[in-house]
User: Fold these one by one.
Assistant:
Number 1:
Amino acid sequence: MIAFAAVLTFVMTTVMAMAGAGAAFVLIPVFLALGVELHAAMATAAHSRRSSRPPVRGYIQRVTPA
């Protein structure tokens, strides 16, 4: 069961990352099914969403003072 959940999670997060949609709606139910506490699952899924976003073009130039 855990191996199936791991493979399913990997495949779905890969597809969602390629689509640019994030994978929180896949990760949270899978983590809950595996017995992870809700707050830990939400924090892990949110971290996954932040790390999968591409950087904003020109962000460093706007933030760094001249």
Number 2:
Amino acid sequence: MYIKINLEITGSLKNRIIADIYFEDEIYDDIILQGKELYIQKKDLKKLEDGEYYILDLLECNVYKEKELIGKVTDILNNNITETLEIDRKRDNRKKIINSNN
């Protein structure tokens, strides 16, 4: 079951986001979302500058190194610190893991 809510992010503390939660035009400050998954529709995402991409946009993209095709991004792994790309290598059909901060 999905419930549409509106969040207004007001700050952060440690690895947590602090937000006001609106549901049917009423504000709730006692809803605990810790450990819950929240989803956003793509149409509601912030418009990015040229050359910026959302990490999910990398799925199924080809990966090149100096004009040579290495493989394709097949998965994005998140360990709450950084995202890691799983690449299906073309030359030997093996998986390669690349930290997205590199």
Number 3:
Amino acid sequence: MNIFFQRKLVKYFGNIKKKKH
């Protein structure tokens, strides 16, 4: 797996968690 892709996923999931509160 690409580190860049993994970082993108982490940022994406982090955004969802922030939206969920």
Number 4:
Amino acid sequence: MAAAIPRTNAMQENVFIVYPGALWGWEVIRDGYDDEPACFDERRPAVEYARAMAIAMSPGEVRIEDARGFVRVTWKTRSGQEVRP
């Protein structure tokens, strides 16, 4: 029986979270990183940015959260393409 291959950073999924900003607009963060969030006035550009980043950094996932932190929509990417939920 072959030994399990440990996951490397290159194989880990990049998760981008889109959520309402504390005071206004929408923010996008990459889960697990301490970077400042990308801020947007409207939801649509925030989602487009997160989807583009997830595709560029495949495998990835985009999660859209509401103001209470509940995940409302999720998209996955693989091999530079979006996979429909």
